[in-house]
Amino acid sequence: MTISSAQALAWRLGRQHLVSGAATAADVVRRLGAVPAWSGDPDLAVRRRLADPAPDAVAAAVGSGDLIRTFALRGSTHLLAADEAGVLLTVRTASRQWALRSWQEHYDLRPDDWPALLDAVRAALAGGPLDREAFAAAVTAVPRFAHLGPALLHPSMTLLKPIAWHGELCFGPVLDGRPTLASPAASPVWGGLPDLDDAGRRAVTGYLAAYGPATRANLHYWLAEGLSAGRRRVERWTDEVLRDAAAEVPVDGAPALLLREHVAQVEAAEPTDAVTLLAGHDQWVLGPGTADTRVVPAARRPGVTRGAALVLQGGVVAGTWAARSGVVEVTWFPEAGTPPAGALAAEAARLGALLGHAGELRLTAG
Fold first, then answer.
1. 364 confidence band (pLDDT: 50, 70, 90)
2. Residue 178 has what DSSP assignment?
3. 274-290: average pLDDT
4. How far is CA 208 from its chain centroid?
5. Strand pairing report for 360-365 and 327-332
6. How far apart are CA 157 and CA 107, in angstroms?
7. Cα-trace Rg, the chain
8. Cα 18 to Cα 47: distance, rounded to the nearest angstrom
9. pLDDT per residue over 28-69, tens digit each?
10. What is the enclosing helix (H) or strand (E) of 35?
11. Which terminus of the chain has a smaller tally of CB atoms within 10 A, N or C?
12. Phi/psi zone of residue 9: left (φ > 0), alpha (ψ -120 to 50 degrees), beta?
């Protein structure tokens, strides 16, 4: 049986909690793998997927330690579920970026210095969150690392990133108006870092559970490009998961990968024309990548990549929206056909409730 792209996207809408909401913010982030914290509206991206979208749901999950904010994909900050964060962080360490000659020369740090540096970071954050100045002072109190003050305080935070990938640092709360750094281990559910190959297989399995049926190109976008894991590693992990837990299925006649436990569900899925309004840079498009034309029409890729807030119909980008003065202004793309005014009005009202206003619809053609 050939699965249609429409069936695959209908099933994926359910898997990503866009049909019936999840119970907690951590459930949403865990399923998506990561939620960008650097752009778009991470609060809206998560709350749109909750059955009970409390205004403080994301902040409360970060405060309790169920979610952490740290450097993950593409060197940018993401929300991760603390109990599973170690999977993607471990995969990110595979490239050993800090061992590059350019890094060694720039920071005067050899690869064999890193265990001691991580020990210094762990000791600095053992007592709780620190602002960056206090953190830098604690680390540079170790004589071998006395020269790192400017790097630890640099606005790019480049040196902080591999420390975060090692699971020794994340962003803490804002205290007295100042951002802080903290230890992920302060979370009561922090899962630590697994073995690299175990993490790689879990990352592939988790991706297929949320974004399947997926192509190998999708997996390379997520893991090889997003986490610099290396194409050969990703191919090996994918082959191991395909042997043990996944199957190759035809989607519109082209090969894709899906966990075996989900094959019957996707084959039975009914295509949908449901309308969904999402924040810009939502994982719905960032997970498979904006180059995936099953989700993002090729002509619309530039706007999606720049972070336009999205209107989906049946899981395919069909327009954009903006909220202004209590009005949700929807621009419907002509190639998507006749705009479903009633469904758009209902979704605009739902969005308005999340944003705290009436959500009146104003519809234009784009």
1. confident
2. B
3. 96
4. 14
5. parallel
6. 13
7. 22
8. 10
9. 999 999 999 977 689 999 999 999 999 999 999 999 999 999
10. strand 35-36
11. N
12. alpha
Cis bond leading into 213, ω under 30°? yes
Q: Maximum CA pair distance of the chain? A: 68
Axis-axis angle for helices 196-211, 85-92 (nearest 10): 120
This prediction has a pTM of: 0.95
Residues 6+ apart with CB under 8 A from 102: none
Single-letter residue type at 55: P
Closest by Cα among 22, 29, 37, 24 to 82: 29
Beta strand ranges found along 200-349 (DSSP E) = 246-251, 254-259, 275-278, 310-313, 316-324, 327-332
Section 129-153 average pLDDT: 97
Q: At 177, is the pLDDT very low, low, confident or very high (cuts 50, 70, 90)? A: confident
3-state secondary structure of 163: helix
**pLDDT tens readout for residues 81-93:** 999 999 999 999 9
Coil, helix or strand at residue 276: strand
Tokens linked to 283: 């994982």
Query: Is the distance from CB of 215 to CB of 234 less than 8 angstroms?
Result: no
Note whether 272 and 289 are within 8 A (CB): no
Rounded to the nearest angstrom, the gap between the alpha carbon of residue 264 and the centroid of all alpha carbons in its chain is 27
DSSP 8-state secondary structure symbol assigned to residue 18: S
